[in-house]
Amino acid sequence: xxxxxxxxxxxxxxxxxxxxxxxxxxxxxxxxxxxxxxxxxxxxxxxxxxxxxxxxxxxxxxxxxxxxxxxxxxxxxxxxxxxxxxxxxxxxxxxxxxxxxxxxxxxxxxxxxxxxxxxxxxxxxxxxxxxxxxxxxxxxxxxxxxxxxxxxxxxxxxxxxxxxxxxxxxxxxxxxxxxxxxxxxxxxxxxxxxxxxxxxxxxxxxxxxxxxxxxxxxxxxxxxxxxxxxxxxxxxxxxxxxxxxxxxxx
Length: 250
Ligand code: PGA
What we know:
globular; alpha/beta; 8-stranded parallel β-barrel; single chain
């Protein structure tokens, strides 16, 4: 199966000084991690995060990027700018971007293209709304989101794509998918990857679960065969909880 990656999604939390403090608290707790560890910080915190993680096993992710390289796009940040700073990862298509900021499958695909062209690793978020799960169309929704986002992504480039399955109803709600529900959809995503690429390429992709993953439920979720990591919101702001999740990813 894919390589384990535990990524924190700090969302719109922490000033640069607070980011340094949080990373300094996390650092010693995850120094022996047997998975990749990433912190997804607000743009303004990136310099502080890069400085605080220097020489450690912690990677830094941005939470979005624009696909054009430069130009008249007020308020946007180009993937190339992130790469130039030394950022390794970018979270794309998070449901909060889709729900509040107008991201669509089409714009997420452009962001993935831009991120890969810039040399970043994309953490692509997919997931269904509660109504869609209740309608029994979770598989179709997630397959469609995955296929559109990966349009034109080569098998070679796929090695720089992490997919985060995040059921929208589980994000920030304290309502976690059961390990079986999480694994079922992660396995379906892997089947989509097999159909788009091949079995070997699909097996190598890290597929994370995200949505109220915490210190208490991480071990069970991460023990599932198709769950290769987690995208962690709330619990990533608590050093001990985040470290417990990291320790559960083996
Ligand atoms: P949560 O957020 O862990 O707070 O539910 C997950 C996410 O939004 O990536």
